[in-house]
């Protein structure tokens, strides 16, 4: 079935450091890919998405490129802030197994220290 | 403001009791979802509804029930048959049942069984 694998956390960075959170997926068909962010005690918010190969999603300084050849959708930010501390989830939908349901990775906890 | 509301934010239940979690949306979305989140894990789909008066089991439906009598409401009942109900429950909605549609999440309900 469809699945999403994220790099193990937690990740701790200093403010202004470069961030990469790896995400790879397994799916047949042509899935859409998403990054969601969850701040403490809250629900999830969409951070960015890409719906076809080579698309780049971007928002609030975060970027991710849909790489079909490597089945990856890595999240990057050039300079993180303390306010970016949260849990980040990679997800897919539209695979032949999942259909329109979202399949989530395990989440990566990011802590940014001043 | 449009959005998804969940109530209550915190809920305590004694073993053997059924409890109903509320989810309301005023986004005029057709599709709604219930997820369960456990510490260190991604979200798992409990039930989903593509349209009013219709719903389908997700990956972990045992011990849960739902109804979708109105477009804006999708309550979840956690029954006494659910063996380990303590978790964070998230409701979501999307405009349509499409794999590129963004799911919007509520703030969640934390259920604790005493």
How does this structure look, described?
The complex is a heterodimer of chains A (114) and B (114). By secondary structure, chain A is mainly beta. Chain A is built from no helices and twelve strands. In chain A, the strands form three sheets. In chain A, strands 2, 5, 6, 10, 11 and 12 form a six-stranded mixed sheet that branches. Chain A is globular and about 45 Å long. The model of chain A has no long low-confidence stretch (mean pLDDT 93). Chain B has 114 residues and is mainly β. Helix content of chain B is 0%, strand content 49%. Chain B has no helices and eleven strands. In chain B, the strands form two sheets. In chain B, strands 2, 4, 5, 6, 9, 10 and 11 form a seven-stranded mixed sheet that branches. Chain B is globular and about 35 Å long. In chain B, 35% of the residues are buried. The mean pLDDT of chain B is 92. At the A-B interface, β5, β6 and β10 of A face β5 and β10 of B.
Using brief descriptors, characterize the structure shown.
heterodimer; A: 114 residues; mainly beta; 6-stranded mixed beta sheet; 4-stranded antiparallel beta sheet; 0% helix; 54% strand; B: 114 residues; 7-stranded mixed beta sheet; 11 strands; 49% strand
- Overall average residue pLDDT of chain B: 92
Order of helices and strands of chain B: EEEEEEEEEEE
Strand content of chain A: over 45%
- Euclidean distance between termini CA atoms of chain A: 41 Å
Mean pLDDT of chain A: 93
Helix percentage range of chain A: under 10%
Indicate the radius of gyration of chain A in whole angstroms.
14 Å
Structural class of chain A: mainly beta
Tell me the number of helical segments of chain B per DSSP (H or I, 4 or more residues long).
0
